[in-house]
Design goal:
Oligomer: single chain
Mean pLDDT: 88
Number of domains: 1
Strand content: under 5%
Low-confidence stretches: none
Largest sheet: none
Shape: flat
Radius of gyration: 18 Å
Length: 101
Amino acid sequence: MGEEDENLIRMAKQMGRDVPDKIKNKPQLSDDLIFYYQAFIDLDTTRTHNMSPTPISWLSIIEYARFHNLNDEDTNELIQIIRAMDRVNLKHVEQAFKDKT
């Protein structure tokens, strides 16, 4: 649980209110999935931001895998997972752009 969540819980208790559902029922990632989540967050910073959102580059994912000394099987899994996460993320970003216009 992050510092922001802890602050919200403390404030809710101080005010005599229930802890918000989004914190109380927050999904917990298993340890093996935290790596992929962090990888996506790190790799998201490598994308180019031109006129429209662009996917995370394959080369960036490969470099990330090399930095973390992943074997071929784990590298292929990283590529598949990051690309799947990125497709979903891009859909949300594209929809947000459409909603703004």
